[in-house]
Amino acid sequence: MRKSDPKTHWNKVYLKKEVESLGWYEEKPQPSIELIKKSGIGKDALLLNVGAGATTLVDELVEQGYNNIIANDISHESLDKLKIRLGENKSKSINWVVDDLTNPQKLNDLGQIDLWHDRAVLHFFTEKHEQETYFKLIDKLVKKGGYVIIAVFNLNGATKCSGLPVVRYNEKAISSCLGDEFKLIEAFDHTYIMPSGDTREYIYTLYKRN
Ligand SMILES: C[S@@+](CC[C@H](N)C(=O)[O-])C[C@H]1O[C@@H](n2cnc3c(N)ncnc32)[C@H](O)[C@@H]1O
Q1: Is the pTM of this model over 0.85?
Q2: What are the φ/ψ torsions at residue 69 (nearest 5 degrees)?
């Protein structure tokens, strides 16, 4: 069976459901905040949040004074929800990039970034060419001395999310995809509690590029 078009899939998901009831909604994105703090990047650092959806991480970062944020997603509906929640003033301070990580156009032109953040996006890329394009983009965009945070389902994680199959990772697999230039700084497992009360097992990783 052919995979349905991901843009259509994700736009429908965000149109159909309240953000707070999504199976990845976080009231407070604590593990991500922890790793961003740990990286030690400054408040002016260029931070790219890929597959941001309607994440509260953006609100939190703006609140904490980070002022150079790019929010990307394949779904404009998700980013529109985030813009509305942030309000006009805060949303004007964000660079919004609707683009597909597995077929990047505008993302290719961003120039060098200080930090790449992905929570719950990479694991949807089940095809080898999608994964290769994703890691090539990291290689292109993350500057030397920059950071990569990847949080995905770990080996005990679910095999599906949002009705889609996922690839599960451990630290070794993520490291091998990133290559030798990226040194692991920290990795931990995290049990996320969904709005429904169910749990999902994630691995969070922070890398620094040599
Ligand atoms: C499970 S949600 C996670 C959203 C957000 N990172 C969070 O933690 O709340 C996955 C997100 O990845 C986005 N996405 C899926 N495929 C994508 C692609 N090829 N390029 C960019 N974003 C994509 C979806 O639209 C969705 O917002």
Answers
A1: yes
A2: -110, 135
C-alpha span between 92 and 78 (Å, rounded): 16
> Can you tell me which atom of ligand 1 is nearest the CA of 101?
20
Determine, yes or no, domain membership for 66: yes
Closest residue by CA, ligand 1 atom 17 = 74
Classify residue 188 by its DSSP letter.
E
pLDDT digits (tens, 9 = 90+) for 142-185: 999 999 999 999 999 999 999 999 999 999 999 999 999 999 99
- For residue 126, what are the domain limits? 28-182
CB atoms within 10 A of CB 44: 11
Q: What is the pLDDT of residues 62-111, one digit of tens each?
A: 999 999 999 999 999 999 999 999 999 999 999 999 999 999 999 999 99
Distance 204 CA to ligand 1 centre (A): 16
Please name the residue whose Cα sits nearest to atom 7 of ligand 1: 55
The domain tally of the chain equals 1
pLDDT 10s digits, 23-70 = 999 999 999 999 999 999 999 999 999 999 999 999 999 999 999 999
Three-state secondary structure readout of 1-42: CCCCCHHHHHHHHHHHCCHHHCCCCCCCCHHHHHHHHHHCCC
